[in-house]
Design brief:
Layout: H1 3-78, H2 87-99, E1 104-111, E2 126-129, E3 135-138, H3 152-157, E4 172-174, E5 178-179, E6 187-196, E7 202-211, H4 213-221, E8 229-234, E9 239-243, E10 274-281, E11 284-292, E12 297-304, H5 305-337, H6 345-355, E13 356-358, E14 364-366, H7 378-431, H8 438-469, E15 477-480, H9 481-498, E16 502-508, E17 514-517, H10 519-536, E18 541-549, E19 552-559, H11 566-569, H12 580-585, H13 591-601, E20 605-612, E21 615-623, E22 651-655, H14 659-670, E23 675-679, H15 682-689, E24 696-700, H16 708-718, E25 726-730, H17 737-743, E26 747-750, H18 755-770
Parallel strand pairs: 16-18, 22-23, 22-24, 24-25, 25-26
Antiparallel strand pairs: 1-2, 1-7, 2-3, 4-6, 5-6, 6-7, 8-9, 8-12, 10-11, 11-12, 13-14, 15-17, 18-19, 19-21, 20-21
Length: 779
Amino acid sequence: MNIKTRILLAVFLLELAGYGLLLNYSHDTSRDALVDIRERQIRATVIDNYHRINALTDLMERKAIELAEVGTLMHTMAQQQAPTALETAIQDYLKSVFTQFPESIGGGLWYEPYQFDPQRRLYGPYVFWNAKREVEFTWDLNSDEYNYPSQEWYLTALPTTWPRDQARERRSYWTAPYWDEAGSKELMMTVDSLMYSQAGAIIGLATVDWSLKEMTQFTEANHITSNAESFIIDSQSDFILSNSLLPKSVMTRYEQLPWMQQLNIDYLEKGALNVSSNVGVNGEVYELYFLKSVTGLVYGVLIPQAEFYLEIDEAMQSIMLNGIVMIVFFIACMLIALELLLKPFHSVTKIIRDSIQSNDDDRITIKPIEYDQKNEFSAVVDALNIVYHQINRYTDELDQANKAKTTFLATMSHEIRTPMNAILGYAQILTSDADIPDSHQDTLKAIEGAGKHLLSLLNDVLDITKIESGGMILYYENVYVRDMIESLDKVFSVRCQQKKLDWSSEIDIPEEYIACVDRAKLNQIAFNLLGNSVKFTEHGRVHLEAAIESDHLILTIIDTGPGITPENQQKLFTPFYQGQAGFEQGGTGLGLAIIQKLVELMGGTVGLKDTSALGSIFEVDIPLNSPNPDLALAKRAVNDGSADYSKFELTALIVDDVSINRDILAKVLERVGVRTMQAPDGLEALNILKSVVPDILFVDIQMPIMDGLELLENLKEKYPQYLPYTCAISANINSHNNDLVKSGFAFAVSKPFQLKEIGDIVDFIVQDQFGNYTTLGDL
């Protein structure tokens, strides 16, 4: 075997082994990325179908409300002229409306007995689509035999026992599904909208009869995969409206199907996508995606697991085949170029070495090799470029998977922060309630502490993810630096007292010193370092020094804790690393890693200045920018969350789709003397603003029907006078409070919020409207 043959064999074996290792390494990652991409496609399609269902039901409700408003107008006119004179107008109107409304089966106006015409007990004009697909008018349903006020569809919205002079809690009501025995023979539902007289009394209702045929057809025909199945359930009656897997189950209760019993539709959050894996139906295993619409319809899709992973495995086989083809191509190139291989060896080696570079963030960049000579190494260079292309492609796929992970964490943050808002909110309210027995206070404080700990863990994971992905951004504002440090002094003085540690501080910062910094991140750095000192110090003291040197903020934290060994000092700022003390105290091991990244982002340094068996000394050096004249100066809060503003007779409008969130905020405001009103979405809030003038608006950002940003645009256009008193509330980590303020909100807080934050906002608004004051007695 000559040297050329040995070189060919060695290169072939090395290339085959290297590419095999690369392919084996990337197989699982690529498969996971493909699974994630496919699942996101399925989720997007399911949610798109859900929005279409919402659009159909919303159209029905709006038409019923429009009919009700016209019915009210006709009732008013009947008081001024003979009712019989209006019959032609009513008939023409109904036929005109439903001629342009083919989605319906029919509809009408149904007045309470003797309400419309004192000479006629029943007055219910009705139109419907006949067999010729023409809109036909009828009075046939006005008979005493049919007696429409006793029908189930009428009693749904207007029970017999309900006082007619008292408004109902909702404008529209949906009946349970039923078969249209009289006309179309189709499965249908009726939406009722109440009609009120000018005096506010209930005078009847307007109805729109909706055929479910179109909705069930498009959901069953919209196959997400070739063998996917879909179903729709009415949560109000528990009846199955559509089931492509078992059509005979339509109009039976969903509990009769064992696999549907796990849906728990009464407890589903409207609009939230739910996923269940390994759902067994008729001997086959499915992935189940389901969610609940605004009107209570539960839409679900069953995806066979075997079919789902078959698509993924086919894609992976294609990738493997391409790899084999490239290996064969490389071998062919090497055979052709072997005679010219040795001559340009050194120059080609340098070119190859230069094509692989390391960036400042230790990430390797592989650039295509530019080599235009025709010699022994041409085929080697060509083959390497092919491999480089594959590596870069796999790297791009990994980046996409990382972005998907970031999106997932953002969604989970919103879903976790919403219940955490309830836990911490109620815990804070109950803890500050003087009527709660002391025996329960410790329990409540434990709940609050556990909730804050869980929130801290979540924030750590999200912060490190943002930092690693380059998504961490600085938000500057002008602040009083001494105020910030003194707030730390107050907080940790109490914490040390609770742990029976000595606390001391030296603050060498002028009272009126103002700097332009990211206040939230600066607070996070200081809180984490001081929190660690208190956490790991069992005896002795914790000391804080703060000073300004050449427009640099110097923070020094000294404690008498267990100290840090030389071995642990080398890994101190490594993510997820914990020493023995860290394992004993608990935590994520991310705190110091996040601190270091944040300090570097702000252009500063952090380090362990000294450590011994007697404790540790950390020092932070952060440059401070001069005040920015284009930014507002942070307000100095004076409220501790316990003031009483009842003398101001303030009213707040709370807009949030989650009733628990509205309840918490209402309790917080009412305990400081602010009256509250509530709206579940932006559209309802606009309706309230037509007749009520609130002093403060608290607006959730993420809501159905009309979200917080859409409501803000409406306020800018219709009610600009409310903008200085509007506060945004968000649980989305991608919506920074500064961005919300820039969009037009006067204030912004994140969920879960603190009582003091809400008290500060009320205090700022009171001072803006009524002037500065020391106590309520000064007014």
